[in-house]
Amino acid sequence: MLLRMDHPKILSDIIGIISELVLEVRIKVSKEGMGIIAIDPANVAMIMFKLPANAFSELNIENEQVLGVSLESLKSVLKRISSGSVLIITKEENELKIEIKDKIKKEFNLALIDIEGEEKNIPNLDFTSRIEMNSKDFSEAIEDCSVVADSCSFISDSSKFIIKAKGSLNSFKSEFSSDELNMQSQDAQSKYSLEYLQKMIKATKLTEKIVINFSSDYPLKLEFNTDLMELGFILAPRVETED
């Protein structure tokens, strides 16, 4: 197995984002590219990531490989990448050999680990609202909500999309009209954890647009996709219980 990336910063950025939610992952590598499907320890969020074959300048692999890795260790190594670096990853027995080629050639060896549990599958979800909007605008709305509360509500109808939060004393609301969005939406309302959303919106630096999928009291799916990568999150709704 040999992977070469001439522009590896995107992988470094994405591994950094994913490591906010999970500690260990199985990385699948095949002739189609590299992928991760993982669920956070609290079973609240799912992460879906794919780098297609065209993201690599060289992808040499005979059979699909499943690599168990510590994301904290991998993130620390990938942070050593600088502008203009070339990344080469090979597998040698129970280790990943990671070379960073720049003015100085750096070589790291990371131990592969066994990860318990079943292989994760992406669930089939049907959404009533699909909204494509500017990533920065979405990120700003989530950060504004976090000033007043620990959860926020997504509300949609055919003509607008609202993100709002209400704490014990203060509240916030951001409203976007259909003129600002690409949306196919019905009436829907659902509440989600801002702790998780604040980690997920770090991916807004990777794309100009984000796709938001949700329904009433139903999981949320966020999509950050470009020609060179696919990154998505599924977040369980926060259901309020009445005493």
* Beta strands, count: 18
Overall shape: it is elongated
Q: Describe the largest sheet.
A: 9 strands, antiparallel
Strand order of the largest sheet: 6-2-3-4-18-17-16-10-14
The helix/strand series, from N terminus to C terminus, equals EHEEEEEHEEEEHEEEEEHEEE
CATH topology of the largest domain: Proliferating Cell Nuclear Antigen
CATH architecture heading of the largest domain: Box
Tell me about this structure.
The chain is built from 4 helices and 18 strands. It is α+β, with helices and mostly antiparallel strands. Helix 1 packs antiparallel against helix 2 (71-78) and helix 3 packs antiparallel against helix 4. Strand 2 and strand 3 (33-39) form a beta hairpin. The strands form 3 sheets. Strands 6-2-3-4-18-17-16-10-14 form a 9-stranded antiparallel β-sheet. It has 2 domains: 2-111, Proliferating Cell Nuclear Antigen; 129-218, Proliferating Cell Nuclear Antigen (Box).
Short description:
With 243 residues, the chain is of the alpha+beta class.
Task: Please outline the helices and strands.
Layout (H helix, E strand, L loop, with lengths): L1 E4 L3 H10 L5 E7 L2 E7 L5 E8 L5 E3 L4 E6 H8 L7 E7 L2 E7 L3 E7 L17 E6 H12 L4 E6 L3 E7 L4 E7 L4 E3 L3 E6 H7 L8 E6 L5 E7 L2 E7 L8
Antiparallel strand pairs: 1-5, 1-7, 2-3, 2-6, 3-4, 4-18, 7-8, 8-9, 10-14, 10-16, 11-12, 11-15, 12-13, 16-17, 17-18
Helix pairs in contact: 1-2, 3-4
Features:
Proliferating Cell Nuclear Antigen, 9-stranded antiparallel beta sheet, elongated, alpha+beta, 243 residues, 5-stranded antiparallel beta sheet, 4 helices, 2 domains
